[in-house]
Design brief:
- This protein is an alpha+beta fold.
- The protein folds into four domains: 2-31 and 261-330, Arc Repressor Mutant, subunit A, CATH 1.10.10; 36-253, P-loop containing nucleotide triphosphate hydrolases (Rossmann fold, 3-Layer(aba) Sandwich), CATH 3.40.50.300; 333-405, no CATH class; 425-544, TATA-Binding Protein (2-Layer Sandwich), CATH 3.30.310.
- 40% of the residues lie in helices and 17% in strands.
- The strands form four sheets. Strands 1, 2, 3, 4, 5, 6, 7 and 8 form an eight-stranded mixed sheet that branches.
- α18 (370-380) runs antiparallel to α19 (383-391) and α22 packs across α23 (515-532).
- It starts with a helix and ends in a 26-residue tail after the last helix.
Length: 558
C-alpha cells in the first residue's frame, strides 16, 4: 500500500529516507496540491587544467574570443538552472534571468575546481541527484605525474599523483557517495594535441586503466564517451561536442528528474531565489519562515521539513542540529567562496607585513589564527561582502566545522586539507622506541577518500571528550597524514594511507598500556567513523565497514 502511495504521488527519493512521521507530513501536504518540477543536475569534475570551464562555455555557445579568456575554475562554481531542455529540440538553450522557469525542463551545472585543496569540500556536493562529466586531458599519459603547480598539490597528500590516479580518484569518489547506477560521461579534451585518437580508442584506454573494475565500469558506457579539440586550419578530426550535447539532453530528459512537491513548498523555493537575487546570503529560520508563510502558523510548522528537503536536493545548506538549527545558508556559492578564499593564495595575507609570519605558519601547518582569517576576508572582499561574512562569521565557521572542513578554535582554527607538515623519521623513531604500545588497529577500505580522513580528524578535535587533546612538541602534533593525541596519560596516533586508517595507542611512561584506555580509544574512533560513514551511499557502505587487523610493530607514515 505504502509503495503505491509513493508511485501515485511521485514522491522525491529524498523523502523516502525520512522518518515515518516526516513522510506522513509530506503526504498530507501533497494532498493539498502539488507542482511538478523537472530539474536535472550535471557535475563537471576532473584534474586541474583538463578544460572543465572551457567545456561549460562551449556548451553555452560562447564565441572563440570568449573561450580564449577562460580561466581555470577555482573552488566550486554553482550554475543553477543554466540551461533549458526544449521538448522538440536537441540542443541546450541558455537560460537568462528573465526566463520564466515554471513547467520547463531545466539543467543546473556545478563546475568543480581541480586544485586538490578543494577536495575536502567536494564530497559535500557529490550526490546521487546528479550525473557526472569526467573531463580528461588526452594529451597527458595516464602514467605522467601531474605538475604540482597545476593542482597545487606540492607538499600535500596528493603529491606525485599521476593523471591516471586522478581518474581513479574521481570515479571512486562518485561510486562512494552516489548510487551504483549514477551515469558518468567521459569527456576527452585536447584532441588537437594527439594523433590517432577517437572516442572508441580513448574508451578502450579508460577500460584498460580501470582493469575492468566492475564497480567503476558500471558507471560508464561506450556511448557516453566523447572527444573534443579546437580546429586549426589544416587539422582534420571528429570533434564530438554536438554528440555530447545530445547525450546530456538525453540524460536530462529522463523521468527520474521529474517529481511532484507540495505547491507551497515550491513557492518557498521562489522566495529563496528572490532572496538570493536580493543579496541575502544567510538568514535566521524564524525570519525565513515569516517570508515564506507569513503569519500562517499551520504552514510555518512545516519550515523544518521544507528546509530539510531543499538541503537534501542541494538548493540550500541547513542542519537541524543544535546551534545550526537557527540559521540557513541561502547562497551555497557564497559559502564555498568564503572557504575558498581562506585556503587559496592570490598573494593576499602574505603581502601584509603583519600577516606574513601568520600566513607562512598557516600555509605549512593548516593552523590559521582567527585574526588572519578575518584579514583575508577584509582583503578579498568589497566592504559589503566582507560585512556579510563578518556578520555571520560564527555561523559560517559552525557550518564549515559541521561539514568537516575546519576545526574551530578560539584563537586559531585548524584546516586539515591545507596541512603540509610531514610526519618525519624523527617522529616515527620516537614512537618506535616506546616499549609499551598496542598492536596497530587497521580500518581497511576498498577506497578511502583522503578527505574522509580529514573529516575524522576534525571530529576528533571537536566531538571527543575534554580528556582528548592534541599532543604538542614544538607545536601541535598534526601532520598531513598523521595526527597525535593525548588521552588519559596515553598517546594516540591516527594515520592514513591509500587504503586504510591506522590506530595505535602508546604509553610514554614505563608502564603497560591500560586495556580499558585502549578499548575506550578504539570505541571512540569506531563511533566517529560510523557517524561519518552515514554520508556514504547505503548500497556501498558495507564495503567500508571497519575490519580490525592487528600486526606487530608501530604505526607507519607511508
Amino acid at each position: 500500500m505504502k509503495s503505491r502511495v509513493y508511485v501515485t504521488l511521485n514522491i522525491p527519493r529524498e523523502i523516502l529516507n525520512w522518518d515515518y512521521d516526516a513522510r506522513c507530513r509530506y503526504v498530507e501536504c501533497a494532498k493539498k496540491g502539488t507542482q511538478t518540477i523537472h530539474r536535472a543536475r550535471a557535475m563537471i569534475v576532473g584534474c586541474a587544467g583538463a578544460g572543465k570551464n572551457t567545456l561549460l562555455k562551449r556548451l553555452e555557445k560562447r564565441s572563440l574570443e570568449e573561450l580564449k579568456q577562460v580561466k581555470s575554475t577555482v573552488g566550486l562554481e554553482v550554475h543553477e538552472d543554466i540551461f533549458e531542455i526544449l521538448e522538440d529540440k536537441d540542443f541546450l538553450k541558455a537560460v537568462t534571468e528573465e526566463t520564466e522557469k515554471e513547467g520547463k525542463q531545466l539543467l543546473s551545472v556545478m563546475d568543480f575546481g581541480g586544485q586538490c585543496a578543494y577536495y575536502a569540500c567536494h564530497q559535500v556536493y557529490l550526490s546521487r541527484r546528479a550525473f557526472y562529466l569526467l573531463v580528461i586531458d588526452m594529451s597527458k599519459s595516464f602514467e605522467e605525474k601531474v605538475d604540482p603547480a597545476m593542482c597545487e598539490q606540492e607538499g600535500t597528500m596528493f603529491a606525485d599523483w599521476t593523471y591516471g590516479e586522478y581518474i581513479l580518484f574521481w570515479l571512486k569518489s562518485v561510486h562512494t557517495y552516489c548510487d551504483s547506477n549514477v551515469s558518468v560521461i567521459i569527456v576527452g579534451t585536447h584532441l588537437d594535441e594527439v594523433k590517432g585518437q577517437n572516442s572508441n580508442t580513448f574508451y578502450n584506454k579508460i577500460l584498460d586503466h580501470l582493469k575492468f573494475n566492475k564497480h567503476l565500469k558500471a558507471h560508464l558506457d561506450r556511448k557516453r564517451c566523447f572527444v573534443l579539440g579546437f580546429h586549426a586550419a589544416a587539422e582534420s578530426f571528429n570533434d564530438t561536442l554536438r554528440n555530447l550535447e545530445k547525450c546530456i539532453i538525453e540524460i536530462s530528459r529522463e523521468e527520474r528528474w521529474k517529481e511532484s512537491i507540495p505547491t507551497h513548498w515550491a513557492l518557498c523555493e521562489v522566495v529563496f531565489q528572490e532572496l538570493r537575487k536580493g543579496g541575502f546570503k544567510m538568514m535566521s529560520v524564524m525570519e525565513l519562515s515569516k517570508m515564506c508563510f507569513g503569519k500562517n502558523e499551520a504552514k510555518s510548522a512545516q519550515i523544518g521539513d521544507v528546509l530539510k528537503f531543499y538541503h537534501d536536493i542541494g538548493v540550500i545548506l541547513y542542519f537541524n542540529e543544535g546551534a545550526l538549527s537557527d540559521t540557513v545558508i541561502m547562497d551555497i556559492q557564497w559559502f564555498i567562496d568564503s572557504f575558498k578564499n581562506i585556503i587559496t593564495d592570490p598573494n593576499h595575507g602574505r603581502d601584509i607585513s603583519e600577516n606574513s609570519r601568520d600566513w607562512l605558519d598557516f600555509y605549512n601547518s593548516g593552523q590559521i589564527l582567527d585574526r588572519l582569517l578575518t584579514n583575508i576576508w577584509v582583503l578579498r572582499y568589497a566592504e559589503m561582502d566582507f560585512w556579510n561574512r563578518y556578520q555571520y562569521k560564527e555561523n559560517i565557521l559552525r557550518y564549515m566545522e559541521r561539514l568537516g572542513l575546519i576545526a574551530v578554535g578560539t584563537v586559531a582554527h585548524y584546516i586539515p586539507c591545507t596541512n603540509k607538515r610531514t610526519f618525519g623519521s624523527a617522529e616515527e623513531n620516537y614512537f618506535h622506541s616506546l616499549e609499551y604500545k598496542t598492536p596497530v588497529l587497521v580500518f581497511r577500505f576498498e577506497f578511502l577518500p583522503y578527505f574522509f580522513y580529514f573529516r575524522l580528524i576534525v571530529s576528533c578535535l571537536t566531538k571527543t571528550s575534554t580528556e582528548w587533546r592534541v599532543l604538542q612538541d614544538n607545536g601541535l602534533c598534526l601532520y598531513k597524514n598523521v595526527a597525535c593525541f593525548a588521552y588519559k596519560q596515553h598517546a594516540v596516533a591516527l594515520a592514513v594511507n591509500n587504503s586504510s586508517i591506522q590506530l595505535q595507542v602508546f604509553q610514554p611512561r614505563i608502564t603497560p598500556v591500560a586495556k580499558k584506555v585502549a578499548l575506550e580509544v578504539r570505541d571512540t574512533i569506531k563511533h566517529l567513523l560510523d557517524d561519518l560513514l552515514k554520508n556514504f551511499h547505503k548500497k556501498n557502505r558495507h564495503v567500508y565497514c571497519w575490519v580490525p587487523v592487528f600486526k606487530a610493530g608501530s604505526i607507519s607514515r607511508t
